Amino acid sequence: MHEYMKTITLDEAAYARLKLWKRGPKESFSSVVKKVVPLPGTMGAFLSYIESNHTATLPGNEILQETTDQRTAIKTEPWT
User: Is residue 56 within 8 Å of 50, Cβ to Cβ?
Assistant: First the structure.
């Protein structure tokens, strides 16, 4: 079934939080972790970093926002 299994230890509070993400008794904790924890270097990790480090007030953000707004206005179909 599974090639490799690891045992981890969570305190009660961490276990309770992880359990809240489960969508039912058949969903594994492994699938919950894969769903919720972003891989390093992904957009999810980038957004988590921004939120946790309060980078919204750093200089230069207005340039990124302006560029994003321009691209959004030009490109209506983001997948082409």
Answer: yes
Greater pLDDT, 51 or 7: 7
Q: How far apart are CA 2 and CA 5, in angstroms?
A: 7
- The whole-angstrom separation of Cα 8 and Cα 56 is 35
pTM, two decimal places: 0.52
Q: What's the angle, vertex CA 21, arms to CA 49 and CA 53, rounded to 5?
A: 15
What does the alpha-carbon distance between residue 25 and residue 19 come to, in Å, rounded to a whole number?
A: 10
User: What tens digit of pLDDT does each residue of 13-23 get?
Assistant: 999 989 998 98
